[in-house]
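Hi all, long-time lurker, first post. I run a small reading group and we've been trying to get comfortable going from sequence to structure in the token notation. Rather than ask abstract questions, I figured I'd post a concrete chain and ask someone more experienced to write out its structure so we can walk through it together at our next meeting. Sequence below, copied exactly:
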Amino acid sequence: MRTLLLTAVIGIALSAESASQSAAPIGAYTVVPQLPGMGRPVDVAATAARRRALMRRIGHGTVLIQAGHERDIEQDYVQDNDFRQDNTFYYFTELETEEAVLMMTARGPDSVETILFLPPRIPSQERWTGLRLGPDSVAVRLSGIAEVLPIDSLDARARAALQPTLKSSDLKPIVDSMRAVKDADEIMRLRRAVDISVAGHIAAMRAARPGMYEYQIEAALEDGFRSNGADRVGYPSIVGSGPNSTTLHYDVNRRKTENGDLVVVDAAAEWGQYTADVTRTFPVNGKFTARQKAIYDLVLGAQQAAFDAVRPGITMRELDGIARRYMHDHSGTLCGERTCDDREYFNHGLGHPIGMDVHDVGISRPLAPGMVITLEPGVYLQAEQLGVRIEDDVLVTTKGGEWLSAGAPRTTDAIEKLMSGR
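-- Answer (accepted) --
Happy to help. Here is the structure in token form:
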């Protein structure tokens, strides 16, 4: 089901098949822990503010937002676990519960009704799945939503809220425009995801040795994620050595590394439904050759030039141009007759927003304080089996940019120092 804005509807039909913990204040927010095994704490103040902001934009109308569905572990290829919440539902509730529906009705700027519909708890199923939220006082406390009803009452309540003629539209463009700029709770989640990702990258550098298989480096990387609290990987981890370092989205990770290889590791953790996106390139033997260092420093300089230009109002396209101009002006003959900014060598965009999606909403709009983006220039020389990509996560502030992932070594000297002490 799409997320819908309805000004009227006929016959909505949706299928649906503990211990109490007190709320704890954190800064200006009230964060409510979820039940064991049911997800990260809910910032009830932040989710309520998002719901109010949405309904102010709508003015009059009813919104139906459906939660995600459990995947079929007998039919689907499940990479980590069999459920991840729908982003829109999560944005307005921060609940990791399945088969639920959030209904909000606005009849003016000061008249908003919010109802959370939940399927009943079935103890016999919970023996297999663990605790689930049901339509009771526990759900009221965890969600901060005062009215929580059984899912089978949705049809009647929707009919009562709406007029007798049907007119519906997709809510996604409105929600996407809200999600582009992150609030304090979202930035906290992204910082945590980035910090966990940095720990994983450091673990991978420390573990790497010539002769290891790419998947062994991947194992050290993802152990670093999980050991530091990751919910899951943000996307399939890329560990490309030697010739695989020149393939952008290589994620087979089966090659045996060789002495002298560079390894491109593009991988990140997800925490609280928000994901980082970090890439580091390092020599598997811990020491860059002069040639590798020259290419690496060019890519690093292009990234720094783009970062120095980050400010509210600039676009990702403009930052891309700045990085390419730096590469054009400083590459000399490193890439032969053509400069290294040529599309044959730097064959992707400079970066993108991150959030609940690794390629998050807001790519086409000018940057604004509260947006979080990546900067990821690269040079790929297939004939030499030499690829370099450096990717960092950056918070846009009123004054410019803030490196979020700087804890993972970025310079060749810092990388070599870390790896020499492994």
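A couple of things your group might point at:
The chain has eleven helices and 20 strands.
The radius of gyration is 24 Å.
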